[in-house]
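We close this part of the discussion by returning to an individual protein. Part of our work consisted of pairing the sequence of a single chain with a tokenised description of its backbone. The amino acid sequence and the backbone structure tokens for this protein are reproduced below.
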Amino acid sequence: MNKLKQLLSDLEPAIADIIAQPGSPRAVYEPISYILSLGGKRIRPAMVLAAYRLYKEEYSDEVIKLAQAVEMFHNFTLLHDDIMDNSPLRRGQETVHAKWDEATAILSGDLLQIEVYEKLAEVGNLEILKLFNAMARELCEGQMNDMQFEQTEEVTNPEYLNMIRQKTAVLLGFCLQAGAILGGAPSNDAQKLYDLGISIGLSFQLMDDYLDSFGETAKVGKRIGGDILEKKKTYLWNEMWNSLDAHAKDETMSLYTTHPEKEIIALVKSKMDETGAKYSTIQKAQEYSEKSSSKLQDLKSVGDKKYLEEIVEMLASRES
């Protein structure tokens, strides 16, 4: 993973710059510095640079600002997602609304979003701004679909896959497409990279859903079983649910009123295993991962593919 390490090293000064967050009152800027400093893999800004490196070797100021913008935007969505999901942990640490309060988290998130547009204005590319707005719109639509699914008795997996395409994959697609555009890629190549980002995003989210139930808290950085307790209609849940008969469905629902949380999680996980939902979710994630690798191999570029290849490889190898 030497190329990926190089990308992350290249990003360090830019990330440090946005973490600094000068401004007053400090009460609204400190939460921004806090969430940006929690780490994470910085995959989205790395994807911007990897796509750019397919066409140019030396970074421009504009591509660095774009990388900063997508990292800030991603963290903005996390600030608000954590409130909506009532999540106590993010990357193993307290979420902003838990450490401060919901009002502060909302306001800090709003300010962070404003800073995203300031960075995009400095990039100065109208095409990229329009693509960003289209992506952000879809992301909001996906988030609303996700919330509405919680009130829906049954969700089909095609509906679920479209939701995670909007909520997760479109941002990755934008990162690759916009990075390539700044690198001078032909429009056809930029579109292929967007499609590649969609495949990566679908694989990533399916694996993320799997790890929410079958990962380890210390490695995943959040409470295991949260999706189960919320009865979220993930691919994993849908596969299990559609394999149960009416009696088994009633029995599963009764767990939520008769058992403590730890037992609910353990018993539902056993059903996910017994019905084959656990295996089929991993299989579906691997299917999209293989599509990503195939799309990448088909891409013709003048620069170094290794940067992007290592990102795809790293995301495909997540097991915990």
